[in-house]
Amino acid sequence: NGDFFCMNDGALNHSFQFPVYPIVLSMALSIHHAPISGVLLNILLSAIACLFFQRNLQTLRNNNWLSLSASTLRLLSLLPLIHPAFAYYEMTNVHPFILDFLMLNIGCAALLHALDESSAKPLETGIILGLAMLGRGTFVVFPLLAILVLLYRKSYKKAKLTFFGILLILAPWLTHNYLSDDIVGLTSTSGKI
């Protein structure tokens, strides 16, 4: 039925956040029933996050918002694969930290795309921003910034299409939370039962 329960501070917690990581993790574990599946999934997600991170840094560099040499940019983009904190979470925890980092970079990429005045795909941008918000509700800042910038630039049609794309992704989960828990929202921090 879409409900997800986890342990939080020693108490069973009903999570109102869309369970992206548990679904992806259960798919990985269904292939091979061993913890190595979770580790490999985290390494794969980390590598994909590195690609988006590099793309975001390159976009910032191309727009003269960031002054980095090409070699420094490459080294920074590999940080999630070589930094000890990232490696620790990849190898020892079944934790959505890596997926959150990936969704953060996808959200940043969509925001940078929305801020590009030549961008011609606001509906797709909205869908990507909505997906990032499903992974973590705190990423609401990306859609808000994108829509505010579009409204400031008087790109009302792009703002409406971006909002529609976001709503297209979020509406089913908002409806689920309302029907199952009488909560109109993406996440809840007080879901202990």
How would you summarize what this structure contains?
The chain is mainly alpha-helical and 193 residues long. It has nine helices and two strands, in the order ββααααααααα.
Describe this structure in words.
It is a single chain. With 193 residues, the protein is mostly helical. The protein is 68% helix and 5% strand. It has helices at residues 20-31, 35-62, 70-77, 79-82, 84-92, 97-115, 122-135, 141-152, 156-181; strands at 4-8, 11-15. Strands 1-2 form a two-stranded antiparallel sheet. A hairpin with a 2-residue loop joins strand 1 (4-8) and strand 2. The model is unreliable at 188-193 (pLDDT under 50).
Strand content: 5-15%
Principal-axes shape call: flat
Structure annotation, total helices: 9
The computed structural class is mainly alpha
Describe the structure using short key phrases:
mainly alpha, two-stranded antiparallel sheet, 9 helices, flat
